[in-house]
Task: inverse folding
């Protein structure tokens, strides 16, 4: 696909998903089918499968998610979803096999219901609490700053205000803007209004464009890619794989321009993964001990984050006792948090 085709596909599949979330299954399915006509992506097939299941067509959903699996055979949630669609068709034998495949890729799928429930509770409890946090997991190679494709296709764009601050920074450091930033002319590309904030579309070299960071040359590689964390709802991060390349501003696992102009690049602030989110929550609650992070492998931190998520989501924020108290009983919450801390310490 060319860049304009990739943007058209992104517009169609994200609009389709939005309509489905709003309950307009018929139109959402049409847009997802159009997205697939433009580019055969696993996430559009997966979206179509979800919509078909919601429309009562479980057999169609199995067919669609099977296409997603064919395109991306390493994504455990696709097998898990196929197991659910098969169970809805009364094929518990095949459903069990599919669940087994998801667990073989990621053993956490053996308790995926507890994980997604806890993730929902914790995301809701901390919604809007962190304003553009800086992830405390300093030992992470910053998977979230690696991208399979050009960064604007993943939604990373530089607004006018950040661009001015960066230009000042480049002048001070003697850096050449053209080595670090790219521009994509948006005139005539369908859906740019809904894909990009109007503040991010500006004249660049005389043409209405979006501006984005370039990527460095080297790929993440298979060794590091084994420990890519999950997203905040325990879904695979689809913009990262072993071929993903780092943003040109990533230096030693940190963003070199995070504080330039006082604020991060707006679009980057939404990239906190599950591991980063849980450790940010622990830091916010005053429960994080920095020594837990020193020298720990990402595989261990990813798993510890899931355990801590289940403890916090299940024992504290999802506690029936706490939910029953209105207004929330702060003394009880503190007691539950103290008990949770005792369990979390034992994870490290
Ligand atoms: S948000 Fe996740 S991927 Fe990004 S640096 Fe933190 S732990 Fe690593
Ligand atoms: S601008 Fe900074 S935070 Fe955003 S992707 Fe690049 S290195 Fe990461």
Result:
């Amino acid at each position: 696909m060319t860049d304009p085709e990739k943007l058209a596909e992104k517009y169609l599949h994200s609009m389709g998903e939005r309509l489905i979330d709003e309950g307009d299954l018929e139109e959402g399915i049409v847009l997802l089918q159009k997205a697939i006509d433009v580019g055969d992506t696993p996430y559009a097939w997966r979206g179509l499968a979800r919509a078909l299941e919601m429309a009562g067509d479980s057999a169609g959903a199995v067919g669609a998610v099977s296409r997603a699996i064919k395109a991306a055979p390493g994504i455990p949630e696709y097998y898990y979803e196929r197991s659910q669609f098969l169970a809805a068709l009364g094929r518990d034998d095949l459903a069990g096999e599919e669940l087994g495949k998801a667990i073989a890729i990621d053993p956490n799928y053996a308790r995926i219901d507890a994980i997604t429930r806890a993730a929902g509770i914790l995301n809701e409890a901390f919604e809007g609490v962190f304003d553009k946090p800086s992830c405390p997991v300093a030992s992470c190679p910053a998977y979230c700053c690696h991208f399979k494709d050009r960064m604007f296709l993943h939604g990373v764009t530089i607004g006018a205000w950040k661009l001015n601050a960066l230009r000042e920074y480049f002048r001070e450091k003697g850096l050449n803007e053209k080595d670090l930033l790219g521009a994509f002319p948006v005139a005539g590309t369908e859906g740019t209004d809904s894909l990009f904030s109007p503040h991010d579309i500006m004249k660049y070299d005389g043409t209405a464009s979006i501006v984005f960071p370039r990527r460095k040359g080297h790929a993440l590689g298979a060794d590091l890619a084994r420990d890519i964390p999950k997203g905040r709802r325990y879904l695979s991060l689809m913009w990262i794989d072993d071929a993903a390349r780092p943003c040109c501003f990533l230096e030693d696992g940190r963003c070199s321009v995070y504080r330039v102009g006082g604020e991060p690049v707006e679009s980057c602030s939404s990239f906190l993964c599950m591991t980063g989110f849980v450790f940010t929550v622990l830091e916010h609650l005053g429960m994080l001990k920095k020594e837990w992070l020193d020298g720990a492998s990402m595989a261990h931190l990813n798993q510890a984050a899931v355990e801590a998520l289940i403890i916090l989501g299940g024992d504290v924020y999802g506690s029936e006792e706490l939910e029953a108290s209105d207004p929330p009983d702060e003394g009880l919450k503190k007691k539950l948090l103290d008990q949770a801390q005792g369990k979390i310490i034992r994870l490290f």
Q: What stands out?
A: The longest helix spans residues 298-317. Residues 135, 137, 140, 142-144, 229, 272-273, 275-276 surround iron/sulfur cluster (ligand 1) (CB under 6 Å). The chain has three domains: 3-105, 109-150+219-348, 151-214.
